[in-house]
Design a protein that fits this description.
Blueprint: H1 2-15, E1 21-23, H2 37-48, E2 58-60, E3 73-77, H3 85-96, E4 101-105, H4 110-120, E5 127-128, E6 158-164, E7 167-174, H5 178-182, H6 185-188, H7 192-211
Parallel strand pairs: 1-2, 1-3, 3-4, 4-7
Antiparallel strand pairs: 5-6, 6-7
Helix pairs in contact: 2-7
């Protein structure tokens, strides 16, 4: 029954060639950062893992009913994040109904997003995603877990998640900056191999969201 509910809720996205979206949130953080990143990730996925993602990426607000039209939502930024009570309820309903949220700290949002994640799931812990998890296994193999894309504080890249009945519904990537690696080459002048590593990890995340 729950699987049926999930399919019904997400059926518009499945029928309309897999639309994905960027989350537009309040609080002052730059939700609009990395404008070329998700379109580039969509193109990479279409070329390499047989998806049919619309490369015109939608923008959706956390309190909007449109949230349920997207099987994958990406969120990034450098600063503060504030969800309203309605946002919290809507995000919780979305994630428990089959949706997937990837939050990529673009350096500076950590303390704020952890607070808001706790509001979404007050009874669940944000836990480290083990390197044995399937998100690191395919379509591209990352035996050491989350790759390091940008240095920032020179700390280890981390992947945290919220799981519901064994399913990863929220992925928070920290000290890696995957989104910077997805951007057009001239934005950060990252070497080709670094960009490919970021895009491959992003494709794994999309693949997991679409298939779980």
């Amino acid at each position: 029954m729950k699987k049926l509910l999930t399919l019904l809720l997400l059926s518009p996205a499945l029928l309309l060639a897999q639309d994905i979206a960027v989350l537009k949130y309040s609080g002052g953080g730059d939700w609009y950062g990395n404008p070329t990143s998700v379109p580039n990730l969509a193109k990479f996925c279409n070329q390499n893992i047989n998806t049919k993602i619309n490369t015109k990426i939608a923008t959706v607000e956390p309190g909007s009913p449109d949230l349920f039209s997207y099987p994958f939502i990406h969120m990034t930024g450098h600063g503060n994040v504030v969800f309203s009570d309605n946002d919290i309820t809507n995000l919780r309903n979305y994630l428990t109904s089959g949706g997937f949220l990837h939050i990529d700290d673009n350096y500076g949002m950590d303390q704020y997003i952890r607070r808001e994640i706790k509001r979404i799931f007050p009874d669940k812990e944000l836990i480290a995603v083990p390197i044995t998890h399937e998100i690191f296994k395919g379509p591209f193999n990352f035996p050491n877990g989350m790759p390091k894309i940008h240095e920032h504080d020179n700390k280890q890249p981390e992947a945290f998640g919220v799981f519901i009945e064994g399913r990863l519904v929220l992925l928070y990537t920290h000290e890696t900056d995957l989104g910077d690696g997805w951007e057009d080459p001239e934005v950060h002048n990252d070497p080709k191999e670094v960009r490919e590593k970021a895009l491959k990890m992003g494709a794994n995340i999309v693949n997991y969201a679409f298939n779980n």
